[in-house]
Fold:
Amino acid sequence: MSFRSEAEESAFIFATKTVSALGYAFIVTAANYTGRLAPSPTGLLHLGHAATFWTAYQRVQQNRGTLLLRNEDLDPQRSKQGYVDAMIEDLAWLGIQWTQPIITQSQRIPLYREAFVRLLATGHAYACTCSRKELARMVAAPHEDTDDEPVYSGKCRPAPTTPAQTLQPNTNYRFRVPDGEAIIFTDQNLGPQAFTARKDFGDFLIWRKDGLPSYQLACVVDDADSLITEVVRGADLLKSTARQILLQRALGLPSIEYFHTQLLRDEQGVRLAKRHDALALRTLRQHGLLPADVIGMFTL
Ligand SMILES: [Zn+2]
Structure:
């Protein structure tokens, strides 16, 4: 039973259509979502990577956004061109499409150095001359799900009133975290998160004695430079997100959204990221698996 006259009814239908058309237009024009895949070419992509990258690709598609590919090749000892070629081939095989050009971190050192020098000049960074042995003695984070570094003792940390330091060659530099401050963010997948500076993580490395930025610094600089709106990555990096939020704040960069994926485990509960053997995408492919078979495995 309708309460509307015929004219009202047609006006109502017109309005509904207009609203849904506007709604659709809004979704399309709101498509400034930009995500990224950021593999390191230090080995072959395996099932664990594929699950995260597939999620990142789905998030981009759901938001009608843009996906960038970033080659995180800042480890000169372990990065190999052969692995870069392999990851491009494996991602394409999986059916993931990204926007060119590929961003290569080793070609962007001046950009990272500029950010580092700014952190140094504003008193956010200090030189750390601790030996590997000394660092190894510091208490490691107990959580098994993070490939995390020990909480730094603060041995080389200067008093807050000390003048800002300058860049010296062959020196490691750390970021001074705000003592006892809770870094709070809402993960788009895992919900509210809180990590306390100097308890859950300490003053972390931002510049290495070999003249290269740490993962944390390069990641923050690149995400800002690429106008990334949401980072999709594994839950082992939740604590790194807290560190990176501090870096964004110190550098005056906009904050972004984070979507951390649960880590895939095998039947024994071992993280797949810890197993590089039989789960490499190309091994699965050589065994006759199709992309759809691999994607189907993520939901097991
Ligand atoms: Zn030190």
